[in-house]
Design goal:
The structure holds 2 protein chains of 2 kinds. By secondary structure, chain A is mostly helical. Chain A has a domain of 190 residues. Chain B has 2 domains: 198 residues, Response regulator (Rossmann fold); 130 residues, Rossmann fold, CATH 3.40.50.2300. The chains are: A mainly alpha, B alpha/beta.
């Protein structure tokens, strides 16, 4: 019994980490955009859907293999992110926060319904770009796709951390996020920095979309809704606006969901995810990795 | 530059207004001319997560309409179909029904496909005394009111949930000879919950045990946590009543974590997408209950399959067949009622007996549930094959 429990625990951790790394990829985009614009980009989940569809076209119509499909869909989504920011959010930059939030919800509906119009509401089968080999490590089961997801997510996160911390563009992003007006006075091009942020965040979401498409084999125009909300929870959990926080939040959320469905009941899974959000907002609203900053009154 | 901006704004506003006007006008134009034609509404899931069902159901019904109109219509009156999309959402289903009744003045409504949407439209139709026939809504409650009395205007053209769960439980204990079964059901769907309940009742009464009863929500994509938990209870088979979108992913993930036992399900499995998403090999040892398969060699079934293929150039699924049957039952009722009055149509429909439909004979019991055929379908290398035929 004891070993049975341990065996289950490890297996559920494996399941949870692979799910969590996808949440983390989407949460990164949320957190970056929030960090720079103080905007909860509700259309982010739909960018993830868009990325999955671009990946679908690349693999099923153009017959590309995994890596080129991933790269093209990341570029495509990055462009979409820039266009959305220019068309929908930029004109609202000086509008009240609530107006821009509602715009984001509008963009989300727009993307979903345009996709329903053009790609039909029916789920599409993602072609198998590589066969899923199942590895048995002792009595645990790991799937090669899970490993690919985890590795891709890690590589992308490392790349992002490098861009943000070591490059000039990253420095500009951090500066704008810290104080946009001061950054402008220092000669930083705010508009292109914001575009860059949207491009990076959207590219990560698209990568998540392609990975999910490969992993679960099916995509549909409304696939972004639930993961979008979950990733938002992950971002808040880790501390919204903080990049390592989003990664941590995503992984914690994935693991908690797997453990709750594994050891309590699968019906409580979503309840647990949102209970975490409520608890965090009550006791540590700045998030796990957030610093306690006093608001100036 | 400024002028251009202003002009484009005015143009946009004009476009919006024009769109609105067109939207309103379109509805009114369709109002019925009761003298020459009989207007029948179809409230279907044309978009949304079960659009596959709604579209098939509509195609099947359209075939029935075409055949009836070719044969001269009903008492010389042509049948005209007006469709409304409920987007697979119960709240939209009520709106769609209201539109069909108030704007299009339909004499009867066919659809929606799924029980939740039927339950949502029913109050609108009953209040207006318009009969409805739900081709593939299997929840037992939709034809009954709170006190268990049969609703006067509600009919269906398929077998009910308990029947499916019952048949599968018997098949599991008698044919598959399994004693320990785990259940994985969709707790956001009455259909799935109902099936799981009946299965549990019948299977345990036959001496079997349920090792685990896990739940998921529709639109979920990751089931590995629940499946890992189920695997630890060592079941000999798993019962997964649900719709193909989730079931396909469940089957794929179950096989991935090494659950190789037989998987059993319900008519929600019936879609080519099931094999596409799960993969041919994974669906082997899959069994589900259904009312029909195109592989059935019965001459009535084959005649329907040919006619459908001729019109739509694809193999009809069960929802198409049930939509077709619903058409036959409804037209027969209007013919025998010799009237387009809702009360009289409902009266005639309730008396349907031994009507020849696509898959055999069709009669109603006192609860407006048809007495009809059930099949056990077995998945073999991606093909749905007939394993066993029950009743009918």
């Amino acid at each position: 019994m004891e070993s049975g429990f341990l065996q289950q625990l490890v297996q559920q951790l494996i399941n949870g980490i692979s799910l969590g790394s996808i949440y983390a990829l989407i949460a990164l985009g949320y957190t970056m955009i929030y960090g720079i614009l103080k905007l909860i980009n509700f259309a982010h989940g739909d960018i993830y859907m868009l990325g999955a569809y671009i990946g679908f076209v690349c693999t099923s119509v153009l017959k590309l293999s995994f890596l080129p499909a991933l790269v093209i869909s990341m570029i495509g989504a990055a462009l979409a992110g820039i266009i959305i920011e220019r068309v929908a959010y930029k004109p609202m930059r000086n509008a009240p926060r609530i107006a821009i939030l509602i715009t984001a919800i509008g963009v989300s509906f727009f993307l979903e319904n345009v996709m329903i119009l053009f790609a039909s509401p029916q789920p599409r089968t993602f072609p198998a770009v590589f066969t899923a080999t199942v590895y048995h490590v002792g009595s645990w089961v790991v799937n090669s796709q899970q490993i690919v997801i985890l590795v891709s997510a890690l590589v992308l996160m490392v790349a992002l951390t490098y861009i943000v911390n070591q490059t000039k563009a990253g420095k500009a992003m951090r500066a704008v996020s810290f104080d946009a007006d001061a950054a402008r006075l220092m000669g930083i091009d705010i508009d292109s920095t914001i575009s860059m942020t949207f491009a990076l965040g959207s590219a990560l979401a698209a990568a998540g979309g392609v990975l999910v498409g490969i992993y679960y084999n099916s995509i549909d125009p409304l696939m972004g809704m639930v993961p979008g909300i979950k990733a938002f929870v992950a971002a808040v959990l880790g501390g919204i606006g903080i990049i390592p926080g989003a990664m941590l939040g995503g992984l914690i959320l994935g693991v908690v969901e797997a453990l709750v469905s594994g050891f309590i009941s699968s019906t409580f899974r979503d309840a647990a995810a949102f209970a975490i959000l409520i608890i965090i907002l009550l006791f540590k609203p700045q998030g796990l990795m957030g610093k306690n900053i006093r608001e100036k009154v | 530059m400024k002028l251009w901006k202003k002009a484009s704004r005015i143009a946009l506003a004009a476009l919006l207004v024009a769109g609105l006007a067109a939207g309103c006008g379109g509805g009114e134009k369709k109002s019925a001319d009761t003298g020459k034609e009989i207007v029948i509404g179809v409230n279907a899931e044309l978009t949304g997560n079960v659009a596959n069902y709604g579209k098939s159901m509509l195609s099947g019904f359209e075939l029935a309409v075409e055949e009836a109109n070719k044969a001269g219509g009903i008492d010389g009156k042509k049948i005209k179909v007006v469709t409304a999309d409920n987007k697979s959402e119960p709240s939209e289903s009520g709106n769609a029904a209201t539109k069909l009744v108030t704007q299009n003045k339909v004499v009867a409504v066919v659809g929606p496909a799924v029980s939740g949407c039927v339950a949502a439209e029913e109050p609108v139709l009953t209040a207006n005394k318009i009969p409805l026939i739900a081709p593939c809504a299997t929840a037992p409650g939709i034809t009954l009111d709170k006190d268990g009395k049969t609703k006067q205007f509600v009919f269906r053209a398929c077998f009910i949930d308990p029947y499916q769960g019952d048949i599968m439980a018997q098949f599991a204990s008698k044919d598959l000879k399994v004693k320990k079964v785990a259940i994985l059901h969709d707790s956001s769907s009455d259909y799935s919950k109902g099936l799981a309940q009946v299965f549990t009742k019948v299977f345990t009464a036959a001496g079997g045990t349920i090792t685990a009863d896990e739940a998921f929500l529709s639109k979920d994509v990751d089931f590995k946590a629940s499946l890992t938990k189920i695997k630890a209870t060592n079941p000999e088979a798993i019962y997964i009543p649900g719709y193909y979108e989730e079931v396909a992913k469940i089957i794929k993930q179950a096989r991935e974590i090494g659950l190789n036992c037989p998987l059993m399900g319900s008519d929600g499995w019936d879609s080519p997408k099931l094999v596409e998403i799960a993969g041919k090999e994974a669906t082997n040892k899959g069994y589900f209950t259904n009312a029909y398969t195109a592989e059935d060699t019965d001459p009535g079934v084959q005649k329907f399959v040919k006619a459908y293929q001729g019109k739509f150039n694809k193999v009809p699924d069960v929802f198409a067949m049930e939509g077709y049957n619903a058409g036959l039952v409804l037209f027969n009722a209007i013919k025998t009622a010799k009237s387009t009055d809702g009360v009289k149509i409902a009266e005639a429909m309730a008396k349907t007996k031994d009507l020849q439909v696509a898959n055999g004979k069709f009669s109603y019991d006192e609860k407006h549930n048809p007495i009809t055929t059930a099949l056990i379908i077995e998945m073999k290398d991606g093909k749905m094959t007939l394993n066993k035929k029950i009743g009918g």
